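User: Modeling request: complex.
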Amino acid sequence: MSRPFVLPDLGEGLTEAEIVKVLVREGDVIAEDAPLLEVETDKATVEIPSPMSGRVEKIHVEPHQTVKVGQVLVTFGEAASGATKPTGKQAADTLDPTRTLAPEPRTTVQGTRARQAPAAESPRAPARSFEPAEARAAVDVGAPARSGPVPATPSTRRLSRELGVDLHAVRGTGPAGRVTDDDVRAAVAGGAPARAQARGVPRTDRAAQLEPAATPAPAKPLATHVTEPPLPNFEQWGPVERQPLSHLRRTIAERMTLSATVIPHVTHFDRADITELDAIVQRNLESARARGVTLTLTAFLLRAAALALAEHPTFNAALDAAAGQLIVKRYVHLGVAVATGRGLIVPVLRDVDKKPVIELARELGALAQRVRDGKATLDDLRGGTFTITNIGALGGTGAIPIINYPEVAILGVARARQEPVVRDGRIEPRLLLPVSLTFDHRVADGADGARFAAAIVRRLERPELLLGL
Amino acid sequence: MVMGDLVRDVDVVVIGGGPGGYSAAFRCAELGLETVVVDSGKRLGGACLFEGCIPSKALLHVAAVLGEAERAKEFGVDFGPARVSLDPLRKWKTERVIGKLARGLASVAKAKGVEVVGGRGVFEDARTIRVEGDEPQALKFRHAIVATGSAPSRLRGIEPSERVMDSTAALEVPEIPERLLVVGGGYIGLELGQVYAALGSAVTLVEMTDGLLPGADRDLVQWLGRRVDKQFAAVRLNARIEALRETASGVEATIAGAATTFDRALLAVGRRPLTDGLGLDKTRAKQDARGFVQIDARCATADPRLFAVGDATGEPMLAHRAMRQGKVAAEAIAGRPAAFDNTVVPAVVFTDPEIAWCGLTETQAAAEGRAIRVARFGWAASGRAATLGRSDGVTKLVVDPESGRLLGAGIAGPGAGELIAEAALAVEAALLAEDLALTIHTHPTLSETLMEAAETLLRG
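Assistant: Request completed. Predicted assembly structure:
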């Protein structure tokens, strides 16, 4: 009895994930809830636990492969049934195929080239790819291919495999319909059916091809919904190198393109005098630390934004362009952009409007740590209504962020600086925080943005409002 | 497993050191995989080098030289009767040809870091190969490639003996029998039959079907047929060997009720895959009724760790198919998107004249009811053929009638095996016959016949 296990629904419109690691091997007997696979979605790297106890009969996926919800990941057999039963002779040695998850002793009596890295990480590790559907089709030797071989040179056919393009779906522009390299590349740009399991390095990357068995990264077009013109051949001006994009990088690229393409962005600039706020932060740093909390300006920004959003619900919304409606959210979950080694990630704090600053600071610290450790859960990363990005740590006088689609606005803050300010006829040194509010002009106009920004600034300048005094 | 056996971990174990096996092993090594070849002879080359393609071609070259010397009388050159000394002939074949190539392969293996282990590889399970023989050990592998090849088939009821040879024994040229019976009119029987005929044997060839080279287009085979009719003592088609027994003075064969005595017999009735006793039943790999390992386009078996290439995987049993498969398997194991997507596996029969074809044949098109256009260019009109005194040939193109795309080609005549390469490239690259016609071919060469044949399609 084989039981297939498919990629479960990841929620939040997530339809696919990239396999990061396969944590079990075929033949392993594993317990329910034991770690099975590590996958990276658009939002997080998550470990998928085993849904059942049993023997892993077949693993259908491999690292770097993109899998869709519902796609079979692993087939379980009965714990004791299936493949070769150990013979009496064999049972005692390490060749027992029904071995458990205990680290397998890799006996190397003669060879000294013991491998340390597990299969998924070793650059020499051969792919354990075996796609059952493909195998079935091809084992059926002699079955006529779909309308015979597609006219194309062997090198073009290899290119199509590398780019994951089904040649049958490509219109050939060569003599008598021969498919050329350009046809294949055009099909990629135009989104011809690309097979998810197709893998490979771009053929132009000779260096990468010669790299000993580097696990090839998937080459597939970005779903940016804009047809980009073909690139010139840069090699005519000098040597180039093709680098595959990480899954996260691809996601960011696709999201940013989507947002920048779909949303007409407007940015409103302002500055908040946070002299008093900063004094409060500084005065309370120690006492907060004693409670295990790092008090930061961002916690106050969260609070200020939440209160301002309550006054300006238009900015706590999403535009349903298809329905011609504005979806106003009656909850305030705020995203905070966090830079990680892998790229930008935006974890979300829930119900910010209902929490005091000290609680926000505590949650923010824990959340940012989880994100940096790669331990964030999907729930940590979804459901946001508005985003704050603080680029102050890296300097600069201001930035215009791109809205975190499908939100309506994003608040950017830069580094606060002491500046001379005229107050009551006197010049005083004050701490000024540059803020920018970027919003969707389809949803709000300039005046709305200015008022919303002012509502945030007002609260930052009068911290008693933030502290509920 | 016996105590004291060595257990080693390697990335890839290749069972069999023939063309499929060594191509796979070399490519694996190039891709950074630690690779061990298990070969019963602890050597690379396989049947191709030691008992197939290479020794037979060496002997056929000798036959060709003898044939040319004979033909030279036509233009006034007489070398006198040829005297053949078997010892120097065997020494040349074994040392200068096979030995040289074997040493070359060994040094390539060394340079690439491919280790060759002597012994018979047997699957213990889908993760372990036990090596039986001189260097017993257990090899644990991530992937294994079955490249065990094939061996001559036997005829039911007939035991091989000193006088009843298979192709392996015949290639050793133990003697030049006065009367040689060749059973089987396929390429092996014809090639070796011509070798022995050239060396001086009276050859009787017996073929079960109604023609030589079953499956090949008749218009190509007829050129070879004319030659062997002159060269051989007899060619018996639609004939079966009813009995074959060794007598004190030779081999007595009963054909159509009549008994004839020969000095030796050569059984050339095909080849069978060497997959018995390999332990494939301990894995999930599947075999068909004839014993061929079933593979997909990546040369992967139904067991994710096992790949298979070459004769062990089916027809056509040709070294160059195995070599390409070996590279595909290696790249697939290394995670490359490799596939055996070749549209042509060219075939060459190294007889005199040579017969070669690639892609779609007329016979195949007829069987499939497929519309084709055929262009033929007879070598009687070739200047180069005339200067060689060899107008006994034809070049044929099989073309798609709608697109003009080249689908296949067939050539009969001396050098056909070399000439077919251009056609193979053209078919594989999906060129049009027009492309051949419009490409300048050197004059005067036999390669012009491809251009000329293509041109006949453009006229009118």
